[in-house]
Amino acid sequence: MIRLLAIAVAILGFSTHSVYAQDGVPQLPDPLQNEVDNGAQIRFLGREKGYDGWIMIKNGVEQYFYVKPDRSAFVMGVLFDNKGEAITVDQVQRLQNAEGELLDTLANESLVTDGNSRAARESFEFKSPSERLYYDIENSNWVPIGDTGAPVVYSFIDPQCPHCHKFIEDIRADYIEKGRVQVRMIPVGFREETKAQAAFLMATPNPQERWFKHMDGDESALPAKSELNQQGVQRNLAVMQSWKLNVTPMIVYRGKDGSVKIVRGKPKDPASMIADIGARS
């Protein structure tokens, strides 16, 4: 499953020569071609904002590269536009639509060829796609609701989603407010207003208080301030899209048996789910 990673930006130099191959696809810069020669899979994402984009998959790990047209330098990371929208998300989605399951298959392969390389170690640690998903969820932009140290459940939440409100309300009195479980809410938004509210929730120093007031009908609790930085929300949406999670709430937790569990939508039996997490008595 293709997943977008917020990779630190690195700018690398390389020599230039003929820019385009005969089929119209730009030639790879030498450092990327060396990775292909060593077994990496690479696909052209297209040109956006003046950069040629590439996705490289090696040892089950995806990386994204953007190359200047003259091939004098390239950038590693996720490309955003000046509104904070993740361009890479759309590019990967178009490529997935064109290649079908091939890209997912390449990304799910975990071929450990070098035990000393960081990529190989990470690939080995991800024993299954569910563990990779859990890693991405843990490293998303979440806000805590409930006591620190309590068993954790993660959930993608849209501020205006009634099913999200009902999920939290179902466990609020008996579990969250009694310190028996902590919900780490991953704020997202599917409209400009809810994106802005999600960004505010991530920025406020008192997210639990603000969220409960919002649930209780206080329309001023989560203002839709368009001037707030929304890149954190965009990255959360990128995680959802890359794992093809398309509803809220989308709940992910680790059960008492150690396995990763996913609940799509509001749980029919919240008490059973909370018990499976191992909530405090």
Here the CATH topology of the largest domain equals Glutaredoxin
At the first level of CATH, the class of the largest domain is: Alpha Beta
- CATH homologous superfamily placement of the largest domain: Glutaredoxin
End-to-end Cα distance: 37 Å
Describe this structure as you would to a colleague:
With 281 residues, the chain is an alpha+beta fold. It folds into two domains: 10-126, Nuclear Transport Factor 2, Chain: A; 134-277, Glutaredoxin (3-Layer(aba) Sandwich), CATH 3.40.30. Helix content is 36%, strand content 20%. It has helices at residues 30-37, 87-99, 102-108, 118-125, 129-138, 162-176, 192-203, 207-215, 231-242, 270-277, and strands at residues 10-13, 41-48, 51-58, 61-67, 73-76, 143-145, 152-157, 182-187, 250-254, 260-264. A five-stranded antiparallel beta sheet has the order 1-5-4-3-2, sandwiched between helices. A five-stranded mixed beta sheet has the order 6-8-7-9-10, sandwiched between helices. It starts with 9 loop residues before the first strand and ends with a helix. The model is unreliable at 1-22 and 105-126 (pLDDT under 50).
In short:
Helix content is 36%, strand content 20%. By secondary structure, the chain is of the alpha+beta class.
Salient structural properties:
single chain; 281 residues; alpha+beta; Nuclear Transport Factor 2, Chain: A; Glutaredoxin; 2 domains; five-stranded antiparallel β-sheet
